[in-house]
Amino acid sequence: MKHHAVSLLLLTMGLSSAWAQNDKDTLDLLKSSGCMTCHAKDEKVVGPSFQSIAAKYAGQSDAGDTLAQSVRNGSRGKWGRIPMPAHASLSAEDLKTMAHWVMTQKP
After folding, report:
1. pLDDT, average across residues 24-31
2. Nearby residues of 104 by Cβ (< 8 Å), 6 or more positions away
3. Helix, strand, coil percent values for the chain (each to nearest 5)
4. pLDDT at position 1, please?
5. What would be the CATH architecture of the domain defined by 22-103?
6. Which of 20, 60, 70, 96 is the most buried (most CB within 10 A)?
7. Which residues, 6 or more positions from 54, have their beta carbon under 8 angstroms from its beta carbon?
8. CA nearest 35: which of 23, 54, 49, 51?
9. Residue 74 near residue 106 (C-beta atoms within 8 A)
10. Residue 54: how many CB atoms within 10 A of its CB?
């Protein structure tokens, strides 16, 4: 039983490490894509915080697709008068990664 607990702990630590690396990679992607110029994790900059975005779309089954489309095409009027410019050069995979990360943000 003790061996099983140690194995489980090591597996969990490995997953935590992988998730932490994924989080860092996604943050690097958000920075290199210009997202962090107007958004922050927990506070409004020019656009809403990532936590506010996650809260607004929480519980919507198509939230990731909606966010990815808003990033790719830009949006107007969802968060006030300042429009979000389109980021059409981002790949579908990068958009999916970023949208998923945003939806995991909790206050």
Report:
1. 92
2. 54
3. 60, 5, 35
4. 46
5. Orthogonal Bundle (1.10)
6. 70
7. 102, 103, 104, 105, 106
8. 49
9. no
10. 19
Angle at 22 between CA 57 and CA 70, to 5 degrees: 30
Q: Check: pTM over 0.90? Answer yes or no.
A: no
93: tokens are 């995979």
Give the residue-averaged pLDDT of 2-17. Answer: 46
Identity of residue 102: V
Domain residue limits, the chain: 22-103
Q: Convert the pLDDT of each residue in 36-91 to its tens digit.
A: 999 999 999 999 999 999 999 999 999 999 999 999 999 999 999 999 999 999 99
User: What SS3 string covers 8-25?
Assistant: HHHHHHHHHHHHHHHHHH
Tokens of 25: 């990679």
**CA torsion through residues 18, 23, 29, 31, sign:** negative
